Amino acid sequence: MKIKEIKAKSIITKSGLPDSDFVINPYVGCQHGCIYCLDGETLILMADGTTKLLRDLKVGDKIYGVRKDENTGYYYYEVTEVLAHWRTRKPAIKIIMDGGIEIVCSSDHRWFSTRGWKYTLGRMSGRLRRPYLTKNNAVHGIGKLITTPQESDLYMKGYLSGIIRGDGLLKSYDYSGRRRNKDIQYQFRLALIDKDAVIRAHNYLNKFGIKTNWFKFKISDGARVDGIRINSKSSYRRIKKLIEFTSESEYLRGFAAGIFDAEGTGGSDSSTIRILNTNAQLLEFTKKSLRNFGFHIVDDKPNKSTNCKTIRIRGGLGEYIRFFQITNPAIKRKMVLKGKQVKNSFKVKEIINLRELREMYDITTGTGTFIANGLVSHNCYARFMKRFTDHHEPWGEFLDVKINAADLIPKKQKEIEKYKGKSITISSVTDPYQPAEKKYQLMRGILKNLIPLEPNLCILTKSDLVLRDIDLFKSFKKLVAGVSLSLLDDNLRKEVEPFASSVERRINAVKELKKAGISTFIFISPMFPELTDWKEIILKTKNFVDEFWFEDLSVKRANWGDIKEWLADRHPKLLKRYGEIYFPERRDWYDMYLKNMEKQIRLFCEENKVNFTIYFHHQKTLA
After folding, report:
1. Which of 198, 246, 476, 565 has the smallest C-beta neighbourhood within 10 Å, fewest atoms?
2. CA angle 234, 239, 240 (to 5 degrees)
3. Same domain, 470 and 372
4. pTM reported for the whole predicted model
5. Residue 31 lies in a domain
6. Percent of the chain clearing pLDDT 90 (strictly above)
7. Which of 392, 380, 395, 465 minimizes the C-alpha distance to 30?
8. Residue in 39, 10, 96 with CA at minimum distance from that of residue 352
């Protein structure tokens, strides 16, 4: 695990939890349990239409994924963020698809096929019984991705040629004889609404030793846009020389990007590249540039009122994306993929066991999906399992340690008053007593500095390391400490929270807290139907627990697919029962189910004379 020490800007934040005003999270991150990995050479579709190798991705990168619309049931492309990135070694499987697509992955990686989400490999029966790819399947995607080339000098010259010829001014004016015998004025100007293209042109010219000046240019509607200009004879001549036509491939690639930034559209309602201009010679050279890379070009009907001609790239979404990957224009807003429905698919031709271990990588994203080598790929179970480990961010091989956490607790009287007597929960996201706390002891400093605030403090953990700080707990007038526990069977516990403390150690921790005079609770969350024996948890612990909290398993469209596959893999006999609970024939049945559970909990708790609080999510069913 990679542990990184960071300095946070704040440590006490507003809470979104019931019965809590503020939260404190000393750590960010936890161990992951992911087995869904891809080869590091896999190309990932970035938000700007370019590609990047999976191994080179960074946390925070914006990429494309897909998300299911809860109303229509269809999937749509959406920009998402890389939340975690890690590497491991796994046996390699190679998938060969139509359209020249090949990808190397682990056997457990999942793909969005035309028949739903499927693993790379699986079996019809036994422990590995699960949906898996076959030669009869097709996987959704946009088509083969390519590596976006670097910006060479020839590319830069081509780009400048395209954007200046398309939307710039490069001209000389001969005023000789009017004011003096010889009077020739030289002018270069480039101004666009999209500043990114102007910045690129400015930087490229600067690289070739041509210094330009920034100015504000007034356009037709009266608005002012950023532009660059220069009026010297030498610069004028150098720019003319720089943008001379050539047939070299890199120049043509840059020209296509430049003319697109100047005169192109990406299509807000369709995946179509169009470039328009009144200069026939310029359009012919644009055609030449695009055909050089295998694009099929057609002429649209000219606009009679403006005499403007338009050329268009054919080939649908695949060619649309390929254009941006090859040319890499500066104006990223013209790449419109977000919100488009996932339709295209590619047939599986062959699945080959390479019979070798390879270094592989995986990521977690905000949508739980990403585009890998042009195919729609899923993250691991993390998006599903994190719900059951008190972690709201994804799992990964990382841990950010807020080493200055204690110093951020208010010390000035005016600041102390803001939090005095308020309820504070530690921790709402990652466990404050995970293994790293043994070394860093952040909680010791945090607790000491919280004492003057006199908060109503709640400590939630899954670790018996909490016992170390009993001496500090006793310094608070209002403090409750407890553990979350949803399963008594430790083998079941390992399925959903493999790296947390064992059931026995958690229960013993609560017992020791109670012996020390600390108010205690057990948070029975989430309650898995047919698996969580909540009655037995109460009977086993009621003598040293002051209160029991209950939370249901909240199933939504975003996580049902993952839950279903987990059940199919581990507990296939429960699939029907979960379907009856979360997909009932009557839409109000789930609410009735929860009310019935609440009634059972109330009756049982009252019968056993234990305190309880229920945090059920009353909602409409997914049916």
Report:
1. 246
2. 100
3. no
4. 0.59
5. no
6. 60
7. 395
8. 96
